[in-house]
Amino acid sequence: MADTPAAPAATSGTPSQTLSRGIRILEILGDERGPLSIDEIAARLGVHRSIAYRLLRTLEDHRLVGRDAAGLVALGPRMAALAAGVAQDLQAEALPELTAVANELGMTCFLAVLDSAECITLVSVEPRHTVASVAQRPGARHPVTVGAPGKAILAQLPEVEWPTETPASLYDEVARSRLAGFATSHDEVIPTVQSIAVPLALRGQRPAAIAVVHVATDRTDAEIAIRLQRSAASIRDALGA
Asked: CA 129 to CA 133: how far, in whole Å?
C-alpha cells in the first residue's frame, strides 16, 4: 500500500488571522479612554459579534481583558504586568524623573518610544496636586508624524527612515525642532491640548522622547523644555547612554 502523502507545510510567511484579530482588539482597547461593548469592538474590528465574542473570551481567560457588570470590555490586569516588562530598565529609570516633572510643572509627563511608524506611550505620570490634568494612558499611540513626541523622535532619525507619507511641511518643522532642542504641538493629537517634548536618544534602544501635555500654563515652551532636558540627561546617565 502506498504511503499517504505528507500534508504540505504551512507557508512560513502566512500570518494567523485569529492572532492578528486578537492583537487588534488589544490595540483598540488601548487607544480608548473608556471600556467598549462587544458590539462596538466587533464593528471596529469588522467582524460578526460572535467572532468578537470568542476572541474576547480567550483574551479574558488570559486576563488580558476584563468585563464589568454591564458587560463592557477594558484591558485587564495582565496587560499591565506585560507592559512593565517592556524596556524595564528604561521604565525604572524614567519613572522617578517623570514623577518629578509632573509634580513640579503640574502637567502629565510621559515617555514615548518609536514603534514602527507610530509613537507609543510607554509610561505616564499625572501630577499629584492638580485639580485637573490631561490623561495620557500607557499604550496610547498615534502616527509619529504628528504631535510633539513624534517630532522629537523624528529629529533623531535620518529622513530616509521617516514614513513615506510624511507631509512636506514637517521636514522644516522637525529641522527647527532639532536646532531648538525641543518640539511642540497644539491640537495635533488631542483637541485643545498642547505638548512639549525633548529627544531621548539611548544607545541600543529605539528613539524615544520625554513630553508633557497641558491645556494652559504661565511657563514658556523653552522653560518647560529645559526641565525636560534635565530629566532626559539624568535618564541617559543612569542607563550609561
From this structure: 10
Query: What's the pTM value of the predicted model, to 2 decimals?
Result: 0.69
Q: What is the pLDDT of residue 85?
A: 57
Q: How far apart are CA 81 and CA 195, in angstroms?
A: 28
In sequence order, the β-bridge partners of residue 195 are 185, 213
Q: Indicate the burial class of 99 (C-beta count within 10 angstroms; 0-12, 13-18, 19 or more).
A: middle
Query: Distance between CA atoms of 125 and 132, rounded to whole angstroms?
Result: 13
pLDDT at 10 over 90: no
Provide the edge-to-edge strand list for the sheet that holds 108-115: 141-143, 118-125, 108-115, 208-214, 194-200, 183-186
Which residues have CB under 8 Å from 235's CB, separation 6+?
90, 93, 94, 97, 200, 202, 210
**pLDDT tens-digit map of 112-125:** 999 888 998 888 99
List phi, psi (to 5°) of 94: -75, -35
Q: Tell me the C-alpha to C-alpha distance, in Å, between residue 229 and each of 57, 68, 113, 128, 223.
A: 44, 41, 16, 21, 10
The answer to whether 212 and 108 have CB atoms below 8 angstroms apart is: yes
